[in-house]
Amino acid sequence: MTLAHKAFAELAGTFAVIFVGGGTLILSERFPNLVPSFCVPVSWGLIVCLMILVAGKISGAHFNPAVTLAFAVAKKLPPIQVLIYWGSQFIGGVAAVLLLMALQKT
Questions:
Q1: What is the pTM of this model?
Q2: Is 1 helix (H, G, I), strand (E, B) or coil?
Q3: For residue 61, is it left (φ>0), alpha (ψ between -120 and 50) or beta?
Q4: What CATH number labels 3-104?
């Protein structure tokens, strides 16, 4: 896989994890009778599992800068790739938060 494919997999995976996990949290707080609180950790776990299945073979499915740093410290990831992964994770996370904020205003 090219570095661009890996970066996009990290961006999309991070976006999905933050959007689904954060979205479930927002829904659970806004509609407690409709979305019980146990759905929050279940949704986080399920989306992480799904994204690992989808992107694991492409990028390693880090989705978290701390995981990327751990791989770098263990010398399993080149330094330039660490910076690209971090940038992709940041963009994916911010995009998910901005979309959730926009959806809350409607």
A1: 0.93
A2: coil
A3: left
A4: 1.20.1080.10
